[in-house]
Amino acid sequence: MEVDLSPKLAKKVHGDNGGSYHAWSPSEFPMLREGNIGAAKLALEKNGFALPCYSDSSKVAYVLQGNGVAGIVLPESEEKVLAIKKGDAIALPFGAVTWWYNKEDTELVVLFLGDTSKAHRAGEFTDFFLTGSNGIFTGFSTEVVSRACDLDENAVKAFVGNHSGNGIVKLDENFEMPEPKKEHRFGMAFNCEEAPLDVDIKKGGRVVLLNTNVLPMLGEAGLGGDLVRLDGSAMCSPGYSCDSALQVTYIVRGSGRIQVVGVDGRRVLESILKAGNLFIVPRFFVVSKIASPEGMDWFTVITSPKSPTFIQLAGRTSVWKALSPSVLQASFDVDADTEKLFRSKRTSEAIFFSPPN
Length: 357
What we know:
Elements: E1 11-16, E2 19-23, H1 30-35, E3 37-44, E4 48-55, E5 58-65, E6 67-73, E7 80-85, E8 88-92, E9 97-101, E10 108-115, E11 127-129, H2 142-149, H3 153-161, E12 168-170, E13 189-191, E14 199-201, E15 205-210, H4 218-221, E16 224-230, E17 235-241, E18 247-261, E19 267-274, E20 278-281, E21 286-302, E22 310-312, H5 319-322, H6 325-332, H7 336-344, E23 352-353
Helix pairs in contact: 2-3, 6-7
């Protein structure tokens, strides 16, 4: 059965004047269900507050825009209050309770990508809010809440019924939220835009890897990833993931083109990529991307805390360079001169190629 691989935009799920929550649905994007991947975005306006909740999936949160504050409570741990900014990646393992707040004029936008293999519904996150109109306590009887919290009936009604917000609310301008602590960022957040580069190709592109070496919490979440920045008109050479990790990619900035080749050498996708698009490449399918003149950045999460392992089909370290000349001649049915010409091209180690002169 053929699966639609075309890039998709998120759709609004809920929100009010404090902000909005958007998600990619497996009913419209079947690869989410096929790959057990969830994807969503949170956008908070000034003074917007995303109420405390936990999820049925492990995730990586990536700050696409703005500055804000995040509160994180891991199982049997104290609350961590982090200052967050554009480029931050935060690992959220199972059971983590989180809240998000924006006190700035610029909208705070956070991307969530994660593994739904243990979720209630494959391909989508289910969030359980601790408070609000759909909060956990609204489902319990007054007696249960009263006994659990040691409150009288009137206090329980106020405690449970005062908040009419659904997931996101807007706080008063003068409301004082907890101040972030610098030490709370250690081990919890990693800024991909300020980190040393793992790959840097002049007029080609740059890569920052997201793994347990730089963010140990990824081990608990079972996820990894990278931030890739492709220069204008540069190309990411054809390659495929040779491990079992599945990749889900979000276009952060710019635009470009993508081609994916699958089984039997069939091109299964040729499309334009734009900022806001999400796409998934099936395991072992070969993918290549070419940036527009403005360049293109993307953030990828893989379902493994290790760095992804790729086999390149171009460049000095490509599989072609590893094969012996006679094998290449026989494989392509070409003479020795043609094989030498092929082998002599693209002698750099680059996975990014600059545009032709």
